[in-house]
Design goal:
The protein has 132 residues and is mostly helical. It is 51% helix and 0% strand. Residues 58-132 are annotated as: Disordered.
């Protein structure tokens, strides 16, 4: 393999920026010559090289790609300390208790209570009618 000087690498990167049309690359042939498994691998490798060439031409990096922009990781939220008593903390959500189903016996007793109450109201109503 041929070793290029830093200046030669810089000139190649600049020359890349001066093409009127992007050269058409035979990725299958490139993969075969480079000992890659398929054309997709060659295409991916060339895409990364083009990024580095663009960075060199712009003066943002070197041939190793150290200046190649990297995607920033999404910042993670900081956890509050367990022992902090901040007034800004949100109160814990209150959960409503699910009403329990009544047993048949309890339902029957309640129905009896309702019947007794209804009877009592009827008798009071009839007494008041009699007094009038």
């Amino acid at each position: 393999m041929v070793d290029f000087s830093e200046r030669e690498k810089e000139l190649m990167a600049l020359a890349w920026q001066c093409f009127e049309e992007e050269p058409k690359i035979q990725y299958a042939k490139l993969a075969e010559m480079a000992g890659m498994t398929n054309a997709g691998s060659a295409s991916n490798a060339w895409r990364n090289i083009k990024k580095k060439l663009t960075a060199i031409a712009a003066g943002n990096g070197d041939a190793d790609g150290a200046g190649t922009p990297k995607a920033k990781a999404t910042p993670k939220r900081k956890k509050k300390a367990a022992d902090s008593d901040d007034a800004e903390e949100t109160p814990a959500k209150k959960t409503k208790a699910t009403p329990k189903k009544k047993s048949k016996k309890a339902a029957a007793e309640e129905e009896d209570d309702d019947d007794e109450e209804a009877a009592k109201l009827k008798s009071e109503a009839s007494e008041s009618d009699e007094l009038s």
